[in-house]
Write a structure and sequence with these properties.
Blueprint: E1 3-6, E2 9-12, H1 19-25, E3 49-52, E4 57-60, E5 71-73, H2 77-92, H3 101-105, H4 112-120, H5 124-132, H6 138-144, H7 148-151, H8 164-176, E6 193-197, H9 201-212, E7 216-221, H10 229-232, H11 241-253, E8 257-260, H12 270-276, E9 279-282, H13 289-295, E10 318-320, H14 331-349, H15 370-377, H16 397-404, H17 419-427, E11 444-445, E12 451-454, H18 463-470, E13 478-480, E14 487-489, H19 496-499, H20 504-510, E15 516-518
Helix pairs in contact: 2-17, 4-5, 4-8, 4-16, 5-8, 6-8, 8-16, 9-14, 18-20
C-alpha cells in the first residue's frame, strides 16, 4: 500500500483512493464544488487543488489517485492563490446578485426579498421573523421610513417599485394584532450590563439586539416616556403612540429596564456609569459641546467621532450612533446603527476582536439591461403598484399578497449555502478580475412546478447531469453546446418539468450555487 504524507501526517493509503478521500478520512478539510460523494469526479471547478511537494504540481484532489511517497499540502499560499484564481474565473461569467438591490439599499440590510416571498405565501410568522432579524421596530419604521430600498428596486425600471415599506408594516402589524407577539430568543445571561443613554431608534435597536445576546440593558432617557424623536419629533397622526408603545413593550419583554427622567451630568454622572456598567452606548440624539465634554470623547461639529465599522468612540468601552454622530432624519439609519453597535458591544464584552458586522462577498450583475428585466418579470405578476384601499393606509391580506407578487426576486435564493459565495468570502476572490465586458444576459427557466433554473449561475459542474442519469430520468439534464458556450439543459429543447420528474429535489440540494433552487421558501 502506498505511504503518503498529508499536512505532515503519514498514512498508508489504498492505491485506488483519491487524495480527497484520504484527506476526509483524516478529517482534513478540502473545499469542493463539482464533487459529490458517490458520483464520478468531474474535475471542472479546480477548487479542490492541493500541492504535491516532490513534483511541485498542483493536483485536483477529487480525481488524483494517491501514489507512494507523495507529500501533500492542502492549505498553503500557493494552493490558496490557485483556488482564488479558480473562483475568480468562475465569477467572471457568473450572472447573479447575492443580494437584491433593495437589500443592499436598506441601511439595516434586511432580507427584503425573503420577507416578500413569505408574505406572498401567507406565512406571516416567518415574515416577521425575517424582518426582526434586522429591524427592531418594523411597525414604527413601516410608517415613517423614507424607504431607500424602494429607490433602488429593479421593478421601478419597469413601472413602479414594490411597496416594500408597506409590506413590512403589514407583517409587523399582523404580529402586533396577535395575542402573543413574536419575541426573539435570548441567549443565556452573560451577567454583563450595558448602559444605553437615549431611547430613540438607535438606543432601542441596540437594546433589542444586546438583550438577545444575553446582556442586561438599562436605558436612560431625560424624558418621561421612551421613544426619543420617535415620540417627540414625529406627528402622532403619522406614527401613533400606541404603535410605538407596543414595540417598546416587546423590548421590555426581552428584559430592558427603562430609567426615565434622568439626565446625564445632573442625576447621574459618566464616572458612575463607567463603574456600574461594562459598556456604554450613547444614542442621545444631536449633541452640543457641553454634552460632548461630559463624556470626554472626541467630537466634531457633526457629533461624536466613531469608527464607522465598529461604532467605537475614542474611549474604550463607549460606543455611539444615530444623530449623536451625525444628525439624520432617517430613523431606519439610526435603527441600523443600533444593530451595528450591538454587534460590536457583544464582541467587546466577549473579549473578541472588534470587527463589527460581518461583511460578506456579494456578486453583482451590474447595470440591468431591458432583456434582463424582461427575464426577471417572468417570475412576477404584471400588476401595477397596489395601494391600500382603506382609510388607515394598511394593506388587507389580499392586497399584500398581490403587491408581494410584483417582486422580481432579483436575489439569490440560496445565499447562505452557495459554495461559490462561501469560498469567494474565504479566499478573498475579486469578481472583477477577469470580468467580461460583454456579459451574457439573465436567463431564467421557470418551467417546473417547484424549481427555478438560472443558467447564468451555473458553473457546469455536471452534478445534476449525473444525478438524473443515475435516477434513469427519461430525459434528465445534459450538456448542450461546446466550449465556452456549453450549457446544462434538458435534451431536445424539452421543458424542465419533463427533464426533472423524479429527482428535482436532489438536483437542487446538490447544486453548489443558486443555479437550481426551490421556488417556495417552504420547500427549503
Amino acid at each position: 500500500m502506498p505511504e503518503i504524507q498529508i499536512n505532515n501526517i503519514k498514512v498508508q493509503a489504498e492505491p485506488d483512493k483519491t487524495i480527497l478521500q484520504i484527506a476526509r478520512e483524516l478529517d482534513i478539510f478540502i473545499p469542493t464544488m463539482c464533487y459529490l460523494e458517490g458520483l464520478e469526479p468531474f474535475t471542472s471547478c479546480m477548487i479542490c487543488v492541493v500541492e504535491e511537494k516532490n513534483s511541485g504540481r498542483l493536483l485536483p484532489s477529487c480525481s488524483a489517485l494517491v501514489q507512494d511517497n507523495m507529500i501533500i499540502e492542502t492549505d498553503n499560499d500557493r494552493v490558496r492563490e490557485a483556488r482564488k484564481d479558480a473562483l475568480e474565473l468562475l465569477l467572471s461569467e457568473h450572472i447573479g446578485d447575492c443580494q437584491a438591490p433593495c437589500q443592499k439599499g436598506c441601511p439595516a440590510h434586511m432580507n427584503i426579498p425573503l420577507m416578500i416571498r413569505q408574505i406572498e405565501e401567507g406565512d406571516l410568522l416567518s415574515a416577521i421573523q425575517t424582518v426582526k432579524r434586522d429591524i427592531a421596530l418594523p411597525a414604527v419604521l413601516g410608517r415613517i421610513c423614507s424607504a431607500p430600498c424602494e429607490k433602488v428596486c429593479n421593478r421601478a425600471k419597469i413601472d413602479d417599485a414594490v411597496s416594500i415599506c408597506l409590506l413590512k408594516r403589514y407583517s409587523a402589524d399582523a404580529d402586533l394584532e396577535q395575542a402573543k407577539q413574536f419575541i426573539p430568543e435570548r441567549a443565556k445571561s452573560s451577567g454583563k450590563k450595558v448602559a444605553i443613554v437615549g431611547s430613540g431608534p438607535a438606543g432601542l435597536s441596540a437594546a433589542y439586539y444586546l438583550l438577545q445576546y444575553g446582556h442586561k440593558c438599562d436605558i436612560y432617557d431625560k424624558n418621561s416616556k421612551a421613544g426619543g424623536m420617535l415620540r417627540y419629533g414625529v406627528d402622532p397622526a403619522e406614527l401613533p403612540h400606541c404603535v410605538l408603545d407596543a414595540e417598546i413593550n416587546i423590548i421590555k419583554s426581552l428584559g430592558a429596564i427603562f430609567k426615565l427622567q434622568i439626565t446625564i451630568g445632573r442625576n447621574i454622572f459618566v464616572s458612575e456609569l463607567k463603574k456600574k456598567y461594562e459598556a456604554i452606548v450613547l444614542t442621545t440624539g444631536v449633541i452640543d459641546d457641553k454634552l460632548a465634554a461630559l463624556y470626554g470623547i472626541e467630537f466634531t461639529q457633526k457629533g461624536f467621532v466613531v469608527d464607522p465599522k465598529t461604532m467605537t468612540t475614542s474611549q474604550t468601552g463607549i460606543f455611539s450612533g444615530g444623530s449623536a454622530i451625525r444628525e439624520s432624519k432617517m430613523a431606519v439609519r439610526s435603527a441600523a446603527h443600533g444593530k451595528m453597535i450591538a454587534i460590536s458591544v457583544n464582541q467587546f464584552l466577549n473579549g473578541e476582536q472588534l470587527n463589527g458586522e460581518n461583511s460578506r462577498f456579494n456578486s453583482s450583475i451590474g447595470k440591468m439591461e431591458q432583456k434582463d428585466l424582461d427575464q426577471l418579470l417572468t417570475q412576477a405578476s404584471d400588476r401595477k403598484r397596489i395601494l391600500p384601499q382603506n382609510s388607515s393606509g394598511d394593506y388587507r391580506a389580499k392586497e399584500a399578497v398581490n403587491e408581494a407578487s410584483r417582486c422580481l426576486h432579483c436575489d439569490c435564493r440560496k445565499p447562505d449555502t452557495c459554495k461559490l459565495r462561501l469560498y469567494a468570502d474565504e479566499y478573498g476572490a475579486d469578481q472583477k478580475r477577469y470580468a467580461n465586458i460583454n456579459r451574457k444576459s439573465v436567463e431564467i427557466i421557470d418551467q417546473h412546478s417547484s424549481v427555478i433554473y438560472e443558467t447564468g449561475k451555473c458553473i457546469k459542474c455536471g452534478l445534476c447531469v449525473q444525478i438524473t442519469e443515475r435516477a434513469k430520468e427519461k430525459l434528465g439534464l445534459t450538456f448542450i453546446g461546446r466550449g465556452f458556450n456549453v450549457q446544462i439543459k434538458v435534451p431536445f429543447d424539452k421543458t424542465l418539468s419533463k427533464g426533472l420528474k423524479q429527482v428535482a429535489d436532489l438536483c437542487v440540494q446538490a447544486c453548489p450555487t443558486g443555479a437550481l433552487s426551490f421556488k417556495s421558501e417552504k420547500e427549503l
